[in-house]
Structures are given as structure tokens and as C-alpha cells.
Fold:
Amino acid sequence: MKYRKFGKLDWEVSALGFGAMRLPTEGKDYGKIRTEEARTLIRHAIDNGVNYLDTAWIYHRENSEGFLGNALADGYRKKVKIATKMPTWMVEKPGDLDRFFDAQMERLQIDHIDFYLLHALQQDWWDKMKRFHFLDWAEKKMTDGVIGHLGFSFHDKFPLFKQIIDDYDNWALAMVQHNYMDADREAGLQGIDYAADKGLAIVVMEPLRGGQLAKEPPEDVKQILEDAVPGRSPAEWSFRWLWNQDNISVVLSGMNTMEQLRQNLHTVENAKIRSFTGIEFKAIANTRKAYESKAPILCTDCWYCMPCPQGVEIPSVFDYFNTARIYSDLPTAKAYYASLGEENNAAKCTLCGRCIEHCPQHLDIIKLLKECHVLLYTEV
Ligand SMILES: NC(=O)c1ccc[n+]([C@@H]2O[C@H](COP(=O)([O-])OP(=O)(O)OC[C@H]3O[C@@H](n4cnc5c(N)ncnc54)[C@H](OP(=O)(O)O)[C@@H]3O)[C@@H](O)[C@H]2O)c1
Structure:
């Protein structure tokens, strides 16, 4: 295993970490973890040097933390550091902070958590956490020795990412969605550099875009990658691109088979910081272009169309539609679309046309929203 600096801490993290969000399950029942198989995977990862495990309240319909608590018996707990997260959107009153935290400690069978994160921060939830004085609450837990270090995971744009970092001096880590297709989205490379300069460790999530970048690529992408380095798998390309970056501490992957775990352990052994050649960078740039050329809606995510008076989250709707087409992954796109809720989906459009007036790309947003809704909406 390769180990890397973890921000300001006097501790080295394994370059590959284990995300307990995509464990093997009974068929499609996301809540039913195949515990023996999953335990074997986690323990094999630890036996091979993985020392960072990531979980959260909601993963596997609230069964991931409890699973991990059991899986880390027999001395495995002391070989790793664990990160779990406050489900920010579920907090409704100040007492909820203790309620979630205490239940998490019980599920994980621990009385000290190494890293405690605010989950999936976006503007509303960060504002709410400030209203509930989360940082004072967490500082007290750190003084009491119950929380080791604080961090946050993030799903918004760079300005908020910067603001969150500037709002508090004592973050140990930031967890960002990062892969070669998302290098300029959310926190982006700009955010990673900013956080690293301030001494935060960077924990990467969705390195394979949840598996989309590991699938059999379309013919043109396959050709680009194969011409550059014959025989390298798409997953290996994605991981190597990440491990080439010196600002990244740990790349989490949600592995659910022994084969995936073995491959990723093999890749991490061979990947090196700042080792990418010009040919490899060019192949990644061309791959990105080839994927992006498959996006049917040429939205640049500038958000000039927002706010929509009806609350339709227009750029996100287009993003999910493009996801369905670029990666041939309709189920994921539908799940993202459903997460907008009935309040923010395209059906709320009243054809007012305010968005069209502001779109620098001159997209026919009203027509496109209708198409998106037809493709992505699933009645529940
Ligand atoms: N805080 C947050 O907001 C947040 C959000 C997302 C994730 N996370 C955390 O970050 C972790 C990592 O994200 P992720 O699970 O999305 O990681 P990921 O590595 O992008 O995706 C995992 C999926 O990639 C596929 N895969 C992994 N290794 C492979 C290989 N060698 N060959 C082929 N396919 C491979 C598997 O897909 P198949 O299942 O299709 O085989 C697996 O389910 C999560 O587990 C979770 O702990 C946090």
C-alpha cells in the first residue's frame, strides 16, 4: 500500500480508502447488506493496508454504520480510522445533533470517532448548521475526546466551498467529488488547491463517477485510451489520473466484489504522484471531449437561468438528462432527478420564459425541460 500525508495531521493515510456505501447486497435491496461477503471485503482491504473507512448515517438505508461496527471486531477497529457524517438535511432541532451522534456511536460500537463530517454540504444545509451552532457543539466533543477531527463533504459550487473553509480554522479534511469528468465542477481543481493550501486533507469520493467511468466505454473512448496505453482498464485510468495529483490524500472507492478490490489494490501499488506523461494527459483530455460531445443539451452550468420563479432547478435537470445519455445510465439519472423532489423538477415549469431571456447559450429551455421530464420522471 502507498501512504500519503493527511493534511496537517501527523498521520499517513492509505492512498486507497474504502467507502461503505456500495457494499454487496441481496439482489437490488439496497438496505440488505450481504454481511459475510462485505466483511470479507473490508477485512481483506485492511489486511492489505487500507486504513481509512468512510460511512454515513444514510448509507444502505441506515445499515452501513451498524455493519461496520460488527465487521471491525476481532482487532480490526484499531487498524483503521473511521469517518462518518451528520445527516445535515435531517437535522430539525438543536437536540438532533446529539441524537444522531449518539446513535452513530452505538451503531459503530465506538466511543470515539476519528473523523466527523457534515454530510453533503450545500448552502441551505451549511446555513442551518451554523444556526444550530454545529461548530460549537463539535468543538466541545473534540475537547471531550469524543471526536478526533472535523471535516465536511461537499456538493455545491466553489464559492461556497471557499466560504465554508474560510468560516472555520480547524477543518482537518474536505471530501469532494472528483474524477476526470468532474475536474471543473463542484469544488473542482480550484477548490482542491484552495483547501490543500489551507492544510486540509483532500478525500476523494466518486472517483469512477459511481462506476460510470469503469464501465465498457463507447468505441471512440475505448480507442483513445487503448492507443495511449494498451490494455489499461477504464477504472485504472481514472484512479491513476487521481493518484497522479499530489494534493489528494485518499481516494475512496465503493468496491463490492473481491475482483474490484484486488484490481484497485494492484493499481494503487503502481500509481505514482506526478508520473503522468503528455500522452496520458492528452488521452484523458480527448476522452473528456469525446464524452462531452455525447451530451445532447449544451448547457454550460452557468446558472444564469436561475433562480427560476417556480423553483425548477434547471441546470441540474439538464445535467441529469446529459448523464443518462453520455454514460448510457438512465437508472442513475432517474434517481438523481427524483432527488430534486416534486418542488424542483421540470413539471413545475409554467412556461414563463424568464430563463430563456437569460440563457447565454440561447437554449430553448422550456422545450428541453419537457423532454427531460418525459425521460427522467418516475412516478412513486
Ligand atoms: N459524502 C457524500 O456526499 C458522498 C457521495 C458519494 C460517495 N461518498 C463516499 O465515497 C465513496 C466512494 O464513492 P463511490 O462509491 O461512488 O466510488 P466509485 O469508485 O466512483 O464507484 C464505485 C463503483 O465503481 C465500480 N468499481 C469500483 N472499482 C472497480 C473496478 N476496479 N472495476 C470496475 N468497476 C469498479 C463499482 O460499480 P458496480 O457496482 O457497478 O460494479 C462500484 O460500485 C462512497 O462509497 C461513499 O463512502 C460520499
In short: The two ends are 45 Å apart (CA to CA). The domain at 3-284 is CATH 3.20.20.100 (TIM Barrel). The chain has two domains: 3-284, 314-376.
